[in-house]
# Entry
Amino acid sequence: MENRLDLGKIIAFLRKRLKEEKPGLQAQLRMCPQPPPSLQAYPENCTNCLKAAVLILLYPKNNQPYLVFIKRSHLVHHHQNQISFPGGQQEDEESLEDTALRETEEELGLNSSCISLHGQLTPLYVSASNYLIYPVVGSLKNTPHFFGQPEEVEEIIEVPLAHLLKEENLKKEIWPLRDRVALVPFYHFQEHKIWGATAMILSEFLSLIEEFISTPDQG
# Structure
C-alpha cells in the first residue's frame, strides 16, 4: 500500500479532483453512528448555525504520507477529550481557509505560511454543537514539528495514510451515546478511536484517496 501512495501524485490528483463534484454525504454517512444523532441535514440549519473549518493536513514522514489529528483537552467548550482535525470557529470577515490555517497554527504551533491549500470537502452539520464544519485540504512539503497548545490540545496524533486505508483498522462497537445506544464505526490507531464528525469527514477524504489508487497511472 505505502509504495502506491506517492505524496506528490496524491496532491496533484486532489488539486484537480476537489474542483469537481465530491463524494459528499453518501461517503460521510458510512461513518455515522446508527441510529444517527439527528435527521437534520445541514441546509436546513445553515441560517442559524455556527461555522467552523478544520484542516486535513497531508505531509511526508518516514517516506510516506501522514495525517495529523489532535485529542482535544477537557478545557475546550465543545467535544472535550475527542479526536479531531485541527480547526475551530470562523471569526468575523475571515475566510474559511484562513480559519483553518489560523486554528492549525494556534493548536499545533505550525507556521501556516508553509501550508499549501488544495480545496474543500463537503460541509458537515453537527447537531450536538450546532456547527457547520467546512473541511479544508492542505499539505506540507517537509516533515513538520508540532507543538501542541496545552489548553486546547491534550495530544497530537500522527497517523500514516496507509493505516487508515486498511480495512482491518475500520471497526464498530456498541456505545452509550447521550440518550441512546448506538453502533459506532471508528478508525482504530494504537489506543485511539477516531469517530463521529471527524470520522465522517475522514471517510469522504479517504474515498478520494481510494479513487486515486484505483485510477490508472495514478496509484
About this structure: The longest strand covers residues 50-61. Residues 2-210 form a domain with the Nucleoside Triphosphate Pyrophosphohydrolase fold (CATH 3.90.79.10).
